UniProtKB/TrEMBL annotation:
It comes from mine drainage metagenome. The keyword Cell division does not apply. GO terms for molecular function: helicase activity. This is Helicase domain-containing protein. InterPro entries: P-loop_NTPase. The keyword NAD does not apply. Keywords: ATP-binding, Helicase, Hydrolase, Nucleotide-binding.
């Protein structure tokens, strides 16, 4: 793609929760003997990278991005064009329209630089942020706590759990509210890189939330014959 923003979006798709690889190699392919590819690479992609290296952030092409490519390609095929085999970041060989487009990009980058200078968060200390994150993580608990909670709760309400990962659960004898919360799922996995046909459980999964709500409701239920976790003693 000639659009620098598209490249960043594609890079971002591999840097997300559940990515199994610690490092993902990104390669840009372009035709070395194709003047259009070379022009787009030099004038757009490399300029985008230069701005990002200078500011530490990306600044999109201002206005309609299609206008930029149309102007560059038109200049490339114009018999009177002064474009050489490689357009430089200084815009040598570009006509007035192309130069104006790219100069607007420079002005947008400069405005962003000034904005970040004015609103720079110099008062934030990395050590303080790290302490807050650690405190939140300690309060939430480790990922394995979700697994223990689901297994213990399903068994406490009369369900059957077998297997390691994925877990196979049977809720035939469980209360209707728990069966509805499971949504018919019989295989549950806590491995985010597992098979796509398995239901992968994380803390924010609706089933986990519904189980937690059921436990809270059952704990407040005063009926002595309630089948909920109110009468359940943890094996530990």
């Amino acid at each position: 793609s000639w659009n620098p923003t598209r490249h960043e979006q594609r890079d971002g798709r591999v840097d997300r929760f559940g990515q199994p690889s610690a490092e993902v190699r990104v390669v840009t392919y372009y035709g070395a003997d194709n003047r259009i590819d070379s022009l787009v690479l030099d004038v757009l992609l490399r300029k985008h990278q230069a701005i990002r290296s200078r500011l530490g952030i990306s600044v999109p092409v201002p206005g309609d991005p299609n206008t930029v490519v149309q102007a560059l390609v038109s200049g490339l095929f114009d018999p009177g064009s002064r474009l050489g085999d490689e357009a430089q970041l200084a815009f040598e060989g570009l006509d007035d329209e192309e130069r104006q487009i790219l100069e607007r990009w420079d002005r947008a980058a400069e405005r962003e630089r000034r904005s970040r200078t004015v609103f720079a968060q110099e008062g934030i200390r990395a050590a303080e942020v790290d302490r807050e994150i650690r405190a939140v993580n300690d309060a939430v608990g480790p990922p394995d706590s979700v697994r223990r909670f689901v297994i213990d709760t399903v068994r406490a309400v009369g369900g059957v759990v077998t297997g390691d990962d994925p877990l196979r659960i049977s809720l035939t004898e469980a209360p209707e509210a728990v069966r509805d919360a499971a949504g018919g799922a019989v295989e549950l996995s806590f491995d985010l890189t597992g098979a796509v046909d398995q239901r992968r459980l994380i803390r924010s999964d609706p089933f986990v939330g519904d189980l937690a709500a059921y436990v809270m409701d059952a704990a407040l239920d005063r009926l002595p014959d309630s089948p909920g976790p109110a009468s359940w003693s943890h094996p530990d």
